[in-house]
Amino acid sequence: MWENKIDINQVVEIRAKTTAFFGVGAINKMADVAANLSGRGITKVIVMTGKSSHIKTGAWDVTKKALEDNGIKYLLYSKVTPNPTVDHVDEATAEAKAFSAEAVIAIGGGSPIDAAKSVAILLAYPEKNATELYELSFVPEKAAPVIAINLTHGTGTEVDRFAVVSIPSKEYKPAIAYDCIYPLFAIDDPALMTKLPAEQTIYVSVDAINHVVEASTTVVTNPLAILLAKETIRLVAKYLPIAIKEPENLTARYYLLYASLIAGTSFDNGLLHYTHALEHPLSAVRPDLAHGLGLAMLLPAVVKEIYPASGEVLAEIFEPILPDFKGTADEADKAYTGLRNWIESVGIKSHLRDEGFDDSVVDKLVNLAFETPSLDGLLAIAPVKATKESVRNIYVNSL
């Protein structure tokens, strides 16, 4: 296999809109990144993180030294939680403004990076707030520079133009997508991910799979999105079981991280539809629900719903975990069962009912899927027409 020919200790550049430094030891490229920021005249930055992963991974020590060596002052905001809220973003923005921050550095997974992208926009639009941003009341065309130091192999947000932040008062979890929030640089270092717990390792990897299943089957998909989808699923199927058993296996982490990166590029090209549009209401109502778990519980039912329209693509990209499928409409139930079995084989046993959702909440979830700002845009590009009936079918079949 070609993977064996690759030196995983060679840090290479993968270019899309964002320049990503990828490989074991990539965190040390922060010296070059800080020098680049200094060369742009940037003297102050806000650093967005969660509570502790930036410290436990060692990423903060390297970042702090790089900033100090280049004369860049920093403000550390370490309050970002999973499923970040507009309140976090507004608080961090206020602190960043008071500090006169000129750029934003994120250290973490999707939550700190998405919150950082949001702060970057609001630094450029000081009269706006995060609720206005996520209720789509204005279209930003500029943002402060964003640097993304990625600590999980799932979201792909370090190389794309998307961000997600919740509005708790309305139980909304919208998504935004603007060219101005492509990170200037990203750090993808698999050595920073060896301490990910098994559960989180599974959830983020399933997130990557969801990205490509959706990206490859929207009505606006393209050959690149499909090509990247097939490779993403092959790599996750091969290396996720290894990473679960051997969490410090750098080769497994390297290829799961690569899968995540190309999945981010895939949905940056092909966009998303049902699974993310339906998961966002789940974790808006239940903020403690892991995003990847929500996606995993929905995915088999989504595949069943779209299989008659997208069977040929799905049969192709799922070949590593669902072999011998032809892509015909009569395989929809078989695909549902096979995918559910694969998800259980990697350690996710839950259905929605196991996580506290039941028939009584389905109507609320259906309404949120259509009412939450931005989610209607995802549903509009699903391969089968998104109606309240189709959305209800997916939720019910996921209970």
Automatic annotation (TrEMBL):
It comes from the Bacteria. The keyword Hydrolase does not apply. The keyword Secreted does not apply. GO terms for molecular function: alcohol dehydrogenase (NADP+) activity; butanol dehydrogenase (NAD+) activity; metal ion binding; methylglyoxal reductase (NADPH) (acetol producing) activity. GO terms for cellular component: cytosol. Residues 19-190 form the Alcohol dehydrogenase iron-type/glycerol dehydrogenase GldA domain. Gene3D superfamilies: 3.40.50.1970, Dehydroquinate synthase-like - alpha domain. Keywords: Oxidoreductase. InterPro entries: ADH_Fe/GldA, ADH_Fe_C, AdhA-like, BDH-like. Residues 201-397 form the Fe-containing alcohol dehydrogenase-like C-terminal domain. This is Iron-containing alcohol dehydrogenase. It comes from Ruminiclostridium papyrosolvens DSM 2782.
